[in-house]
Amino acid sequence: MWNYEKRLQFPVNIKKNCPKTATLIISQYGGPDGELGASMRYLSQRFSMPYNDVGGLLTDIGTEELAHLEMICAMIYQLTDNVTAEDAKIAGFDAYYIDHAAGIWPQAAGGVPFTATEFQSKGDVFADIVEDMAAEQKARATYENLLRVIEDEEVRKPLIFLREREVIHFQRFGEALERVKFRLDSNNYYFFNPAFDKQMAKSK
Amino acid sequence: MDDKTKLLGEIYETSFAVNDLTLYLDTHPEDAQALAEFQAMHARRKTAMQTFEKKYYPLTVDCMSGSKDGWTWGSAPAPWQGGMTNVEL
Fold it and tell me: Checking phi first, is residue B82 left (phi over 0); if not, alpha (psi -120 to 50) or beta?
């Protein structure tokens, strides 16, 4: 289960409003490669993971992603908390404002609402871990896209932190993959799905 | 730098070390050096959290001690607003 700590994982202190920046960053909340998708992906996949250490890793990284989506939302909040109707019209924030005002709702920068179709929980050990590695790379690339176009240092600092965490998570999932392979027959890793063909799995 | 900011800095740094080492130890459970580092950071974090609660307010429900009056959990500011965030890492 989850407890809550009343603090962000990394400080967010943005003094200047910019609704345009908020409309870009929101992709890391509800976009296809964002933190909400990442957390739901890992927290869903962990149940069918037959190895306790990998399931534990999925829980721990999935929990950290919840802390990351909280940071993204804090950034959006601080970028829009004093925005007026006039600002909303000029900054290209107008379509979002019509449906949400200064409310925070998970969607991609282009307006596509968050959906479970943006992640998979395949119930196959290899498919799940390799999807997780791809997800971390996609998130890293998205942070790099944001960093190319955002200049405000106060916005860049938490984005740089979040990008570094994606790289670390990728590393951890790669190690999890090796730990899984070590337990299986190197002559044919796909001989059975240890998450499903339980009678064939020798050890947990 | 005032005392509150320094203490918050200690909490942010030790907590991050605990988070990062947790993930590392999940895939390297036999690494004794990492485990020692984890235990040291974990202890420092615990001390910092308890000190923060005594001086200011609890950051977790577990931190709430019985020595204060009132619902101190509610007195902590929302993390997404200012005040908690003037920490330079």
Answer: beta
- ipTM for the complex? 0.93
Residue found under tokens 């007195």: B75
**Residue indicated by tokens 């908690």:** B84
User: In A, which residues are within 8 Å of B80 by CB distance?
Assistant: 8, 12, 70, 73-74, 77-78
The pLDDT score that the predictor gives to residue A90 is 73
Which DSSP category does B29 fall into?
Answer: T
Contacts (Cβ under 8 Å, ≥6 apart) of B62: A3
Per residue in B20-42, pLDDT tens? Answer: 999 999 999 999 999 999 999 99
Mutate to test the interface with B, among A1, A3, A7 (most CBs of B within 10 A): A7
The answer to whether A21 and B75 are in contact (CB under 8 A) is no
Checking if the pLDDT of A204 tops 60, the result is no
- pLDDT for residue A199: 87
Yes or no, beta carbons of A8 and B29 under 8 Å apart: no
Please state, for a pLDDT cut of 70, what percent of chain A lies above it. 98
Going by the DSSP 8-state scheme, the letter that residue A17 receives in this structure is -
Secondary structure letter of residue A118 according to DSSP: G
Are A34 and A139 contacting, i.e. CB atoms less than 8 angstroms apart?
yes
Please give the Cα distance from A119 to A121 (Å, whole number): 7
